[in-house]
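Q&A log
Question type: sequence-to-structure
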Amino acid sequence: MKKTLLLLSLIISIKSFSQLITAGGDHSLSICTNNTLYAWGANASGQLGNGSNALSYVPVFISSVTDAKVVSASRLHTLVLKQDSTVWACGDNTDGQLGDGTNTNKNTFVQVVNLTGVVKIASSYGTSFALKNDSTVWAWGNGTAGQLGNGLNANSNIPVQVSNLTGIIAIGAGDSHALAVKSDGTVWAWGWNFYGQLGIGNNNDNNIPVQVTNISNAVSVGGGNGHSIALKNDGTVWSWGINTFGELGNGNNTNTNTPVQVSTINSITTISCGRNHSLALKNDSTVWGWGINSNGRIGDGTTNDTNIPIQNLMSSVTDISAGFDHSLALKANGTLWGWGKNSTGQLGNGNNSFNNPTPLQVNGLCPPITEISELSATETILIFPNPTHSLLNIQINEASIISISNVLGQELMNKRIQTNEVIDFSNFENGIYFVKELKSGRTIKFIKQ
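Response status: OK
Response body:
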């Protein structure tokens, strides 16, 4: 009798890699798939949150945050949204932007008071913002230009509700202004408006939200030093405000206080607004940038400014973040790359070489956690088309459970799928959604048009 020997092949799978990123003023942060937090770069105000004020040229593990969900960095402070929907902050607190009821800088994370049920966060030069699960927006910190949106022009070191805003699905923050997207696709803005960055047809500041003109079907927004950008559900990008360095990407250098379309790009899934430059991620995983390019922050290998989008040197990108003078991109394989200014080590590559117009890989980020399992060594998920009008193809290397949620973090679907499955989204509202493969933690954003 012939015997057959059955061998159970155990695969060592590497489970931990970067999944969320943010580029701040002169520092950067990333959340790993195991919800741990790493930070690097400038730290004079304690914005890394590691208990010191020493800068770091490489990522450092932030031991006090073990359950991070979202991270947002501004010039001198950092916000973290935890899994329990509370918000924590560190760094400069001159204007009360840490929201702990004091004006004292902190080099470890402290909890923002009186704030729970948060689903999104955003930060600007000295102000912080949060979107709650009831679709209201809250702000704290510098309010001298009306950027708290509560009808006053005063600072607050505790969260205050932004006036007259309900049904919000997305928020963004510029230098001294803020933006929000309603569920009906309209965009609202408040705060400083010297360059027309509120997009309302004039240059008057507003301490309560006002509707941006000529924008509909928006799904996300971002703000820079004096300009704003919005992504529409058709994959086009629109901008308004200052245009000295080509920040609006419309082929000229003339300011405008009403939205104009960014030239030559479409099929965009993600946008990110830096101080005077912007980035866009296309559905083919390429990165495009426009505006000021000193220090090489667009990442095209040059330091030449551009008033139309040009392609970055990266490929296979899943997420982007534009900082003040540098930029970050996350690749599909979980590696993180940076380019632009690096004088304080904000690119995380172990040195402080000043200009880097070519992307460099961040070193020592999210050390791998090895596990023995009966899984394939490569856990991948692919979705297409993106954006989609109705049908979404989901491909994965083995049968698994996926979760689909909206921008408010509300789970809309949880189901087990086979290696190749088509899901009908025709009855879903237009907007941004997230597909998460629960076993690996890999999350992909897509747009329903």
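Response note: The chain has two domains: 15-361, 376-448.
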